[in-house]
């Protein structure tokens, strides 16, 4: 369902990325894209073992996640990027957006963004995805962004670890971007993430992307405008 009231009076409009702007878990799709481009077949096999539900590695890490929290599957998978130069990761990020994500846009949220682009509304991508991906998306859309950040050593090579994980930290990241004493003003948010419930609750204009009807129940207390994206 396409929203009919695209927050024309919002001062700041925050968009999530994965499964909000694109039908994609961009972190893992990007990892697969990079490893294929680098012709690292062994690392590709490891990624498959880490991400397929039938894999013992996936099952073991999923159990660990339930016991200890965090995201051990993502943590281990990111090690596959170790040693790749930052410049190459950013180049592949641009290629990933152009060749992969361009065919997986969620039309309703892109229309929503286009309706406020060029107005006085400040558009910001807040995403737990990786900086080479979100930087490329933001450049394509001509908007600001804050994302999770990969670590890079003194030679500019990826360490395979995050120096910042944005998941669960979006309200603070938004305030840091705007400035510690700045007022957010009238906020609009578009997301599909359950972990963004607090951010959505703080918004005057609320848009929630749902990929199956039963997901609406989680958000009903906030009475958002639902964007139904039931199929890719």
TrEMBL record:
Query: In Gene Ontology terms, what is one molecular function of this protein?
Result: hydrolase activity
Q: Which UniProt keywords apply?
A: Hydrolase
Name of the featured protein: Haloacid dehalogenase-like hydrolase
